[in-house]
Amino acid sequence: MINTNIRKLVKKLGIVLLFSSDIRGRGYIVKVKNVTFLCVNANLSDEEQDNVITHEIGHYLDKLDIGDYKNNVVVRCHSEHNANLYLINRYSAEYVDIVDEDQANYVNFAKSIGIDDVDLAKSILARHYRNNSSEMT
Predict the structure, then answer these.
(1) IrrE N-terminal-like domain location, by residue (predicted)?
(2) Which of 17, 52, 121, 127 could bridge across to 110 with cysteines, CB 3.0–4.6 Å?
(3) CA distance 119 to 37
(4) Cα(17)–Cα(11) distance, rounded to whole angstroms?
(5) pTM above 0.90, yes or no
(6) Phi-psi bin for 74: left (phi > 0), alpha (psi -120 to 50), beta?
(7) What is the DSSP annotation of 10-27?
(8) Could you tell me if 63 and 55 are in contact, meaning their C-beta atoms sit under 8 angstroms apart?
(9) In a domain, 137, yes or no
(10) Range of the domain at 120
(11) Residue 44 domain-assigned (yes or no)
(12) Cβ–Cβ under 8 Å, residues 62 and 86
């Protein structure tokens, strides 16, 4: 079952969620005419589906038209980086609330949300921990 907050955000953005076991990969977002579809691999676990949906929403919110995603590796890397930033930021706030900084495991956090870029996850978590500690003082 998809996380309630994610489901609400998808609805608010007017995105149509589709689940299929026949798609290649984990998921993708595509606009057809004026309708945005977010297709998710139905064979993934609920947690993986949440991560895919959140990542794809990152693409949707980025809306930066920087070129040909499919054929230009620089464009693709930039787009994936921005979507990963959104995903990490979305989940790091929850993580910081439940895990003390001295117990934080950046590698496990990154793996849990399907991100390979541990350094990016570490830097964003560190920022959230700093912001959290400054709010408490």
Answers:
(1) 12-61
(2) 121
(3) 31
(4) 9
(5) no
(6) alpha
(7) HHHHTEEEEEETTSSSSE
(8) no
(9) yes
(10) 64-137
(11) yes
(12) yes
Residues 129 and 70 in one domain: yes
List, for residues 80-125, the tens digit of each pLDDT value. 888 999 999 999 988 999 999 999 999 999 999 999 999 999 999 9
Structure token pair of residue 93: 């706030």
- 90 lies in the same domain as 128: yes
Tokens of 119: 């350094």
Domains of the chain: total: 2
How many C-alpha atoms does 108 have within 13 Å on its Cβ side?
Answer: 5
Cβ-in-10-Å burial (0-12, 13-18, 19+) of 34 comes to: exposed
Closest CA to 97 of 71, 57, 125: 125
Q: Does some domain include residue 58?
A: no
Chain position carrying tokens 């054929």: 71
